[in-house]
Amino acid sequence: MSEDLRIGFHLLDIKRLTFNLDAGVDIAESEYKLSVQLGFGAAPGLQRVKAVPRIIFEVEGEAFITLELALTFAIAPNAWERMINEDGDLILPVGFARHLGVIGVGTARGFLSAKLEGDPDYSQLVLPTVDLTQTVTEDIGIAFAEEE
Question: What fold, for 13-119?
Answer without folding.
Answer: Bacterial Protein-export protein SecB (3.10.420)
